[in-house]
Design brief:
alpha+beta, Helix Hairpins, Immunoglobulin-like, 2 domains, 11 helices, about 35% helix, ion transport
């Protein structure tokens, strides 16, 4: 059976109209590259197939400090309970060898009131934790008991020193201080002093300063050598203005760290479009000494190509209010658009006229915007003036004297005289 033909022509149907509509180009998202350093500073690196696991046991203290808290508490509890049980067994054996467990024996005991394994376990806890209840105690009859007492005291002191030191180091780790060192969410590239610059903003939320603060930048990318060797993580050091001027930063207020994109910069050949398609990652490392504890701390973050804004600049956040400098951290990562050439720094060095033309265009656009604003203000003021004059006219028209009628009596009747 043949299909029925539609009354509406095919070119005016939905498929035909949809085919005639202009289609927008579809851009596919670039595959997200794994970050080497996360935004919170943690290293995105997994160690696999380590054959020499015994090397971690050679540095037991560092291994315990690096463990998570739940594992540290489990090891802490297990170590103490195991030592108590071990020496409880030793005290029970001493009492058993001396015959103290015999209920009918009336002689002097090695350890008084130790008549079972439970009482030996309680006595072991009392000795190691230095709890003296007064009921259980050793006597001078057994040199073996004195030896066991000395050994348990020494072992208990070692366990206490290691475990308490481990917990203290975990609570006083330098990365806790790094939680109050903040970085801007995005990095920007703009013109500063007639040069393209890569800029970030850093700040310290605490009043206690970081002594001798230094900032290092590194660009991490996948490169291939002329010999064909592929380097998946090639780290390139990036020079900053602070490193050129001095060795450290005075991080009293938030600072903008600037990297001039020159011939020695790995960003020298990248334009705005090429930057979005590149797979580079800029790592920022802030190091310094904590003023209160004297411990060296380090804060890290990174910026991938999607987090680098071309043609933006950070807004000012430090103002002077009543003789005090105030920092508005709500605008810490805010940026504004500025006139910036979209070409690479190499092209700017080869053709300086590009920068001049860009600045002239931005100046003209700025002047045009000012003119538009002034004209709009004038029009608004004229409208307001016209509205006020019209209202005055209406008010004045209301003040015109209306006609008043007077009735004057006459002989033949009433005559009406109108007076205005």
């Amino acid at each position: 059976m043949l299909a029925r033909k539609s009354i509406i022509p095919e070119e005016f149907g939905l498929p035909g109209l949809a085919s005639r509509l202009p289609r927008k180009p579809v851009f596919r998202d670039r595959v997200n590259k794994a970050r080497f350093i996360a935004k919170n500073g943690s290293c995105n690196l997994a160690h696999k197939n380590i054959r020499e696991q015994g090397r971690f046991l050679q540095d037991v203290f560092t291994t315990l400090v690096d463990l998570k808290w739940r594992f540290t508490l489990v090891i802490f509890t297990t170590t103490f309970v195991s030592s108590w049980l071990l020496f409880a067994m030793s005290w029970w054996l001493v009492a058993f060898a001396h015959g103290d467990l015999d209920q009918q024996r009336n002689g002097t005991h090695c350890v008084n009131e130790v008549k079972s394994f439970t009482s030996a376990f309680l006595f072991s806890i009392e000795v190691q934790v230095t709890i003296g209840f007064g009921g259980r105690m050793i006597t001078e009859q057994c040199p073996t008991a004195i030896t066991v007492l000395i050994l348990q005291n020494i072992v208990g002191l070692i366990i206490n020193a290691v475990m308490l030191g481990c917990i203290f180091m975990k609570t006083a780790q330098s990365n806790r201080r790094a939680e109050t060192l903040i970085f801007s969410r995005h990095a920007v590239i703009a013109v500063r002093n007639n040069r393209l610059c890569f800029m970030i903003r850093i700040g310290d939320l605490r009043k206690s300063m970081i002594i001798g603060a230094t900032v290092r930048l590194q660009v991490v990318r996948k490169t291939t050598t002329p010999e064909g060797e592929v380097i998946p993580i090639h780290q390139i050091d990036v020079q900053t203005e602070s490193a050129v001027a001095s060795n450290s930063l005075f991080l009293l207020a938030p600072l903008i760290i600037c990297h001039v994109i020159d011939k020695n910069s790995p960003l020298y050949d990248l334009s705005a479009m090429e930057l979005q398609c590149s797979d580079l990652e800029v790592i920022v490392i802030l190091e310094g000494v904590v003023e209160t504890t004297g411990i060296t701390t380090q804060a890290r973050t990174s910026y991938v190509s999607e987090e680098i804004q071309w043609g933006h600049r950070f807004v000012p956040i430090v103002t002077e209010e009543e003789g005090v400098y105030s920092v508005d951290y709500s605008k810490f990562g805010n940026t504004v658009k500025v006139a910036t050439p979209l070409c690479s720094a190499r092209e700017l060095d080869e053709k300086p006229s590009i920068l001049i033309q860009t600045l002239q265009k931005s100046e003209l656009s700025h002047q045009n915007s000012l003119r538009k604003r002034n004209s709009m203000r004038r029009n608004n003021s004229m409208r307001k003036g016209a509205g006020s004059s019209g209202s005055l006219r209406r008010n004045n028209s209301g003040l015109v004297t209306s006609k008043v009628q007077f009735f004057t009596p006459t002989d033949g009747g009433q005559n009406l005289n109108a007076v205005t």
